[in-house]
Write a structure and sequence with these properties.
single chain, alpha/beta, Spore Coat Polysaccharide Biosynthesis Protein SpsA, Chain A, UDP N-Acetylglucosamine Acyltransferase, domain 1, eleven-stranded parallel sheet, eight-stranded parallel beta barrel, 8 helices, elongated, binds uridine-diphosphate-N-acetylglucosamine, binds calcium ion
Length: about 450
């Protein structure tokens, strides 16, 4: 029996009050629907169907999956109607798992338990217990405790309304059974919709056993209907990720003040201070120190690096023992070799900085290759852009660039060269020589400061 997940994601999500389809709103930097797809992909599956409708092409474009099949539900007539649009993609023998695209924290292991829970039964539903069951479908059981039906909130009687075991929406059954039940659904209910949940009553009427699996952690199966719930689940998702890092040996000063929007790996004894955002794919070595208010995106940071407060690092590769910041802006294409230093108010872009080299203060280094053990003085600018094209600056090993130098690219500074402070370098400079451009200093004799006329 092959497992075939069908993810329902066609609903409009009116209560989000958004132009963005609900299932594309991100949790931990990733669309909610993507979380559900990823959980399904962790199971042994050969294909996954997504029922889409509201948001159409946009939904299709913004999620990825290895074997995604798409089923359009042009009009949203209920969860049963949604499954009807996709069920013919299943072989009769498939085990069809129904999942919701707006329940982002679902874990693969829970989906697995649900499938195993089918056992000898024909239908298995994932339930949970909540203190306030309002709005959910209630799990109605018979005297022996066997599942008898799921009754939607709007169709409940006074007694059923008190039941606090609810339907999470996740269910599993064989495709042939789904196909038979789906044909029998009618919209004769309070909302005039085709309810998937009616399949439970149909299975029981046929004399089959409906089993259930209880999800202990109700947050895991919580759905998002508005932005308050989105923010609540974001916190839960953050807590999960941050706790994993801590268990792996990373010190997080305040778990509530680190945000991970992507995939982060870190080695032991790395230390992350407050208000740090890690985005995309971030790889941190061991004993890295990240001071407050740093944003690091799609970058690799080597062992023993020190990222000082208020620095931004994007698409960069930083080797071991580098020092960055405070207030540094390390832009895409920056590569730092071991023990390099980027100091305060320095911006780098497409810059290779050799080992032991220092750009300590107030500089712009773009489209540049800097050798090893170079010292770049405060206020140095690579003038890389002529208004049309970008040009390269190449600085040899052991060069010393005096403060406030402008390097007008394309230009090369020779190995071991020294550039006098305040120079505008427009031609290649020879190695091991002092080069400078500087107007001779003069003093105007007997010059007097202007003075204000007395009134
Ligand atoms: C549904 C269940 C309810 C359960 C609750 C859990 C039914 C009839 N009710 O109610 O028992 O407690 O979820 O959250 O199944 N969708 C479509 N097409 C549609 C309608 C919905 O794709 O025509 C999708 C939505 O995008 C969403 C999911 O199905 O991902 C659930 O839809 P929603 O309208 O939120 O169902 P509820 O009324 O909350
Ligand atoms: Ca819902």
């Amino acid at each position: 029996m092959k497992l075939f997940p069908i993810i329902l994601a066609a609903g409009q999500g009116t209560r989000m009050r958004s132009a963005l389809p609900k299932v594309l709103h991100p949790i931990a930097g990733k669309p909610m629907l993507q979380h559900v797809i990823d959980a399904c992909e962790q199971l042994t599956v050969t294909k996954i169907a997504v029922v889409y409708g509201h948001g159409g092409e946009q939904v299709k474009q913004q999620v990825v999956g290895k074997q995604l099949l798409w089923a359009l539900q042009a009009e949203q007539k209920g969860t049963g109607h949604a499954v009807q649009q996709a069920i013919d993609l299943a072989e009769d023998s498939d085990l069809v798992l129904i999942a919701y695209g707006d329940v982002p924290l679902i874990r693969a292991e829970t989906l697995n338990k649900l499938c195993l829970g089918l056992g000898q039964a024909t239908l298995c539903v994932l339930t949970t217990k909540v203190p306030h069951p309002k709005g959910y479908g209630r799990i109605v059981r018979d005297a022996q405790g066997k599942v008898k039906a799921i009754v939607e909130e709007k169709d409940t009687n006074d007694e059923q309304r008190l039941i606090n075991e609810i339907n999470t929406g996740f269910m599993a059954a064989r495709a042939s059974d789904w196909k038979r039940w789906l044909k029998q659904l009618t919209p004769q209910n309070a909302q005039g919709e085709y309810y998937l949940t009616d399949c439970v009553g149909l299975a029981v009427a046929e004399g089959w056993v409906v089993s259930s699996v209880l999800c202990e952690d109700s947050q895991e199966v919580e759905g998002v209907n508005n932005r308050i719930q989105l923010a609540q689940l974001e916190r839960v998702a953050q807590k999960r990720q941050v706790e994993q890092l801590m268990l792996n040996g990373v010190t997080i000063v305040d778990p509530a003040r680190l945000d991970i929007r992507g995939k982060v790996s870190a080695q032991i004894d790395t230390y992350i201070d407050v208000n740090v955002v890690l985005q995309g794919e971030v790889v941190l070595g061991k004993n890295v120190v990240i001071e407050p208010n740093c944003i690091i995106k799609d970058s690799t940071i080597g062992d023993f690096c020190h990222i000082k407060a208020n620095s931004l690092i994007e698409s960069a590769v930083i080797a071991r023992d580098c020092d960055i910041g405070p207030f540094a802006r390390v832009r895409p294409g920056t590569v730092l070799e071991p023990e390099a230093k980027i100091g305060n108010f320095v911006e780098t872009k497409k810059a290779y900085i050799g080992s032991g080299s220092k750009v300590s203060h107030l500089s712009y280094i773009g489209d540049a290759t800097v050798g090893a053990n170079v010292n770049i003085g405060a206020g140095t600018i690579t003038c890389n852009y002529d208004g049309v094209n970008k040009h390269q600056t190449i600085i040899g090993d052991d060069a010393f660039i005096g403060s406030c130098t402008q390097l007008v690219a394309p230009v090369k500074v020779g190995e071991g060269a020294t550039i006098g402070a305040g120079s505008t370098i427009t031609k290649d400079t020879p190695p091991h020589q002092l080069t400078l451009t500087r107007a001779p200093q003069k003093t105007i004799e007997n010059w007097q400061r202007p003075v204000k006329e007395p009134k």
